[in-house]
Write a structure and sequence with these properties.
The structure holds two protein chains of two kinds. Chain A is α+β, with helices and mostly antiparallel strands. Chain A has five helices and three strands. The longest helix of chain A is centred in the N-terminal third of the chain and has 23 residues. Chain B is mainly alpha-helical. Chain B has a three-stranded antiparallel β-sheet with strand order 3-5-4. The chains are: A alpha+beta, B mainly alpha. Chain B: This is E3 UFM1-protein ligase 1 homolog isoform X1.
Chain lengths: 174, 819
């Protein structure tokens, strides 16, 4: 579990673990899995709220629950930077982790693949594989996106690649 | 679509929509508070805790501190800082404000203490005090961890109210205890009847208290006792006087002291300082002088004037009677001689008598009237004179006066002793006193002491005297020798240094014998008076002696010179003869045995004669020189000494002379005449006698006279035995020009040597005569004892035969000399 900061780790351990090993094509089993995904995400969200650390909104974009969209944000220097968030559940899920995309930041940073998929740390993949059926979407967000935002947003802001929306508005006005 | 899933979707949605609780970080809060400060919304001081997580206002802090103090009574600031969680600096600052605001609090050594605390402490102390009856403040202070001064200042206002007791010298006492101790002090002080150092008393009281209280008792300070004591003295409960703060003299004692002194002084009209010392008066003289201003302060005692008057009367009486008095005998026994002299100096009659030379004071306390002293002097002088006259005429020799005087003294004392008809006892006493007196005189370093030299002298003093006494009664030769010895040993020093002055002892003895009533007058040691008297008389006596001494000295010198001249003459003669005889011995050098015999003969006869003459005459000379009496110096010519006597005599000589004399005496027993000559020469040199050497001319004249002498002797000789050696000697002079002294044993050899010098017939006569003489002598020696024996007949016939031969023999000698 090395490679993450202590806060992340403690949070991660508090997210309920999943049991059903099923992909989107497994029918009833996937539904069961989806339920568990929801429970885990509810627990995570509540946890974030109680810690005043709410940082994303997410919802299933299709009834099967294979595509998810939403928003995520990060507060830097008392300014809130908000980005669109989207990802698909891969067919081989849960053996393969979902690839989280931030389309607004595509091309703005090196830590990103084509199409706005974020680059995860080298530790992510083995950890995910080791916890194969037990980790879900909530874990992916917690382990993948949260650290990425914390690392990249300040750099992007400082380098001027992204601007706060107020600033952008004011700059456009001026 | 599964309901449950929908439900979950809805739940998730709501969860996401729910308002997240707002949390401010500590940092934000701190910033907020700072902001509020900046904006002057908070316009008072804010303190924060040590942890930095809390803000507190100073008022709150003060309130918390005060409440803590109220609760505990006594809190240290450090504890407060801990309990409030605020920095010590602020706590201290607030503590100062709090104490300044609240008069019931005090800040002492980092502690805030309330008055309530002190009240409770005082109550505790009171409880304990009532239990123990006394507590030391230091102990309390250490228990409470406060200073003694603080505790004292706290307790002072509470004494008598909350603490029922008394504070004294760092101790707390209950009134009951104080009362008890003061009762003890009063009792002890009243019990004292003699002057006492109070600190000793206090220490004993302390001891007592400690015993009463057991181990728990705290040591009571002496100052506490002293304070109680002083109070009681002030109140008049104790009577007496206190000196130097600690020396207490009770009134009772002072009264008794005065009474005692008064009564003694009025009864005896004197008082000893020693007695006052016993009574505890350390400076008796000042005390008595202030008390009896008309008294007389002496060395050992203090006397009333009446005592002086008494002495004065006694002295006056003695002077008028022409007698003497020991003032000590009139005075009390405790008076010393110094006291007596002091009293005497206050006697008016005596002072006037002294001025007019009517009286003398000897040895501090003895007063002699002039008439008495005069009388004594006259009598002693007469005694000395008569004695001197008899000594110089009767003995015909000048003598050591001191020893003569001693003789005289012992003689006199023995006669007086006989008169006293208690001989042994008193004579023993005399001797004893004399000895002791001598030593004392020496110890006191009397410079006038002349005779007393050392203990060795003193010791043989008496025996010598006794021997002289014996000698006087019966004169024997052995005693003569021993007397000579002791005299010789004693004389050298006494003679040189005394110069024949009458010694103190002698004068004392004279006075004793002339006035034998000293002892009857109850004086233990008459010498104490007699010595000063003798000292007084001696210079006069010495003066009178001096003139006589001069005459004696000249006479003595003549005598010595005469003896020496005489001796020189005798020795010269004898020594020349000896040398002559010695030459003759050279003839026999080749014959060893005969030579030895001849040598020894010569040593026995002539040499021994010279040695003896020298010894005896030198001895006489020495004696005369030292003034000893010598009975008959003429006799000594005839005396011949035995080897033992010779050695004894030799030993009496002084120093190296004695050594040389011993050597002479020794070689006399030897075999060689040469060694004797050497020793004799040494000795003579030492003793100042000149030995003349024999020269040719002198030798010839001597030989001639000797020959003549022999010839006349031979012609006159009638005894056949003694004729032979003389004839042989004469023959030797005729043929060899040597004077031979041959003993009987050597005669035959001497005769044999003459063989070739004499003609046949003469030699024949000589040998026959010699043979006949030998047989005669043999017969004589064999016939000792019985005279009726036939041997006597044979002796007479032999003698007649020899007598018949005598003319022939004489003829041999006398005839050849004629041509």
């Amino acid at each position: 579990m090395e490679g993450w900061d202590p806060n992340t780790k403690s949070t991660l351990t508090q997210i309920p673990l999943l049991t059903v090993k099923a992909g989107p094509r497994d029918g009833g089993a996937w539904t069961q899995r989806l339920k568990e995904e929801y429970k885990a995400m509810i627990a995570y969200t509540q946890m974030n709220k109680s810690n005043d650390n709410d940082w994303f909104r997410i919802s299933a974009a299709n009834p099967e629950g294979t595509r998810w969209t939403g928003k995520c944000w990060y507060v830097h220097n008392l300014l809130k930077y908000e980005f669109d968030l989207q990802f698909d559940i891969p067919v081989t899920y849960p053996a393969t982790a979902p690839e989280i995309e931030l389309p607004q930041l595509d091309g703005k940073t090196q830590k990103m693949y084509r199409g706005g998929k974020i680059c995860l740390t080298v530790h992510f993949k083995p950890l995910w594989a080791k916890n194969c059926p037990r980790f879900g979407i909530a874990h992916a967000l917690c382990l993948g996106l949260a650290p990425w935002l914390a690392a990249e947003v300040p750099i992007l802001v400082d380098s001027g690649m992204i601007k706060h929306k107020d600033d952008a508005a004011s700059s456009t006005e001026t | 679509m599964d309901d449950e899933l929908l439900e979950l979707q809805r739940q998730f949605e709501s969860a996401q929509q729910a308002k997240s609780s707002i949390r401010l970080s500590e940092r934000n809060v701190v910033e907020l508070v700072q902001k509020l400060h900046e904006l002057q919304i908070i316009d008072f001081d804010l303190l924060h805790t040590v942890s930095g997580k809390e803000y507190i206002t100073p008022e709150q802090l003060r309130y918390e501190m005060v409440s803590e103090v109220e609760k505990l009574g006594r809190v240290s600031l450090i504890d407060l800082a801990d309990s409030t969680g605020v920095d010590l600096y602020h706590v201290e600052k607030q503590a100062e404000y709090a104490v300044a605001d609240n008069p019931g609090l005090m800040l002492i050594q980092g502690e805030i203490i309330s008055q309530h605390y002190w009240d409770s402490v005082a109550e505790e102390i009171n409880e304990r005090l009532q239990e123990c009856s006394q507590i030391s403040l230091a102990e309390l202070a250490t228990q409470l961890h406060v200073g003694v001064e603080l505790l004292t200042s706290i307790l002072k206002p509470r004494l008598g109210t909350m603490v029922k007791g008394r504070l004294e010298g760092g101790q707390l006492y209950t009134p009951a205890y104080v009362a008890r101790v003061s009762a003890m002090v009063r009792g002890a002080a009243r019990g004292i009847t003699v002057p006492t150092n109070l600190s000793a008393l206090w220490s004993s009281l302390q001891h007592l208290l400690q015993e009463m209280d057991g181990a728990s008792g705290i040591a009571v300070e002496g100052s506490f006792f002293q304070a109680l004591f002083n109070g009681q003295v002030k109140e008049g409960q104790l009577l007496g006087s206190l000196r130097a703060g600690v020396y207490w003299t009770p009134t009772v004692f002072a009264g008794a002291q005065k009474e005692c002194i008064d009564s003694f002084f009025s009864q005896n009209s004197f008082i000893n300082y020693e007695m006052l010392n016993k009574l505890g008066i350390s400076q008796p003289v000042q005390f008595l002088q202030s008390r009896y201003p008309d008294g007389l302060a002496l060395v050992n005692a203090f006397a009333h004037p009446s005592l002086t008057e008494m002495v004065n009367a006694a002295v006056e009486d003695a002077i008028e009677r022409g007698s003497w008095i020991d003032s000590l005998s009139v005075l009390p026994t405790s008076f010393g001689s110094q006291d007596a002299s002091k009293i005497l100096s206050h006697c008016q009659s005596l002072q006037s008598a002294l001025k007019s030379q009517k009286a003398f004071i000897f040895g501090d306390s003895y007063v002699f009237s002039h008439t008495f002293v005069k009388d004594v002097y006259d009598r002693i002088e007469k005694e000395m004179e008569s004695f001197n006259v008899s000594g110089s005429t009767g003995m015909g020799l000048s003598d050591d006066i001191s020893s003569r005087n001693n003789d005289r003294v012992s003689h006199d004392s023995s006669t007086s002793v006989e008169a006293n008809d208690s001989p042994s006892e008193s004579s023993g006493k005399h001797a004893m006193e004399k000895g002791s007196r001598k030593k004392r005189g020496k110890a006191s370093g009397n410079t006038k002491t002349v005779i007393v030299e050392g203990t060795s002298d003193n010791q043989d003093y008496v025996p010598a005297k006794s021997k002289k006494n014996q000698k006087k009664s019966k004169d024997t030769s052995s005693l003569h020798v021993s007397e000579v010895k002791s005299g010789a040993r004693k004389d050298p020093r006494s003679q040189e240094e005394s110069l024949n002055v009458p010694s103190e002892e002698w004068v004392v003895q004279q006075i004793m014998t002339l006035f034998p009533d000293w002892e009857e007058q109850g004086i233990d040691d008459p010498h104490t008076i007699l010595r000063p008297l003798a000292n007084h008389l001696r210079p006069m006596l010495i003066n009178s002696l001096k003139e006589k001494r001069k005459a004696l000295l000249t006479e003595n010198a003549d005598k010595m010179k005469r003896i020496l001249d005489d001796l020189q003459r005798k020795v010269d003669e004898a020594f020349l003869n000896l040398q002559l005889y010695e030459k003759a011995l050279e003839l026999f050098d080749d014959d060893q045995s005969t030579s030895v015999v001849l040598h020894r003969h010569l040593l026995r006869t002539s040499a021994a004669y010279i040695a003896d003459t020298l010894f005896i005459n030198l001895d006489i000379y020495n004696k005369v020189k030292s003034g000893l009496e010598v009975e008959n110096s003429q006799n000594s010519e005839l005396v011949s000494l035995s080897p033992g006597e010779r050695i004894d005599l030799a030993k009496t000589f002084r120093g190296s002379m004695s050594k040389k004399a011993l050597a002479v005496a020794e070689v006399l027993e030897g075999k060689r005449i040469e060694t004797f000559m050497v020793a004799l020469r040494d000795f003579a040199e030492e003793s100042g006698i000149v030995l003349k050497k024999l020269d040719k001319k002198l030798e010839r004249t001597l030989l001639h006279s000797y020959r003549k002498d022999l010839m006349s002797q031979v012609s006159a000789e009638t005894d056949p035995v003694s004729l032979l050696p003389k004839v042989v000697s004469l023959l030797y002079i005729q043929f060899h020009n040597k004077a031979l002294q041959a003993p009987g044993r050597a005669i035959s050899v001497a005769v044999l040597r003459l063989k070739d010098k004499l003609d046949e017939s003469a030699y024949k006569i000589l040998t026959d005569y010699q043979a006949a003489t030998v047989t005669l002598l043999a017969l004589v020696s064999a016939a000792t004892g019985d005279e009726q024996d036939c041997s006597s007949d044979r002796i007479t016939t032999k003698r007649e035969f020899l007598e018949g031969l005598m003319p022939q023999l004489k003829g041999i000698v006398l005839t050849p000399s004629q041509p």
